[in-house]
Amino acid sequence: MLAFLFVLLAVALRFLPHPFAFTPVAGSLLFFGAREPKRQMWIPLALFCASDVILTKFIYAYAFTVEHYVRWAWYVAILWLGTRLGRNARPLPVIGAALASSVSF
User: Fold this and answer.
1) What string of H, E and C letters represents the secondary structure of the chain?
2) Which ranges of the chain have pLDDT less than 70?
3) Cα–Cα distances in Å, from 84 out to 20, 36, 71, 75?
């Protein structure tokens, strides 16, 4: 349940002004991937993809490009990385996954 709350909060924060273009997208996806069953992985993916479309088309009025598919593939990769961490992750793998997800974006 907490993972759903983190994802909803991360999606909502994308619509607010934020310093240095920082939003907790990677952290919420990692946590969701580590804590929730694989059959529910489509939920954060759908929410983030929908927020991308809304932000791109209606808020910023940009064109929809192939870069969106790359970003959506990144969402899937971070969710998968979270599933690799699992529920009993030690600190070093969590730090590595957080750094890898931040640097890759």
Assistant:
1) CHHHHHHHHHHHHHCCCCHHHCCCHHHHHHHHHHHCCHHHCHHHHHHHHHHHHHHHHHHCCCCCCCHHHHHHHHHHHHHHHHHHHCCCCCHHHHHHHHHHHHHHC
2) 21
3) 29, 12, 20, 14
Calpha distance 69→90 (Å, rounded): 32
- Domain borders along the chain are 2-12+25-104
Residue 19: what pLDDT? 78
Could you give the dihedral angle defined by the CA atoms of residues 96, 24, 103 and 97, in that order, rounded to the nearest 10 degrees?
20
Count the neighbouring beta carbons within 10 Å of the beta carbon of residue 14: 18
How many angstroms separate the CA atoms of 5 and 55, rounded? Answer: 21
Name the residue with tokens 């192939």. Answer: 66
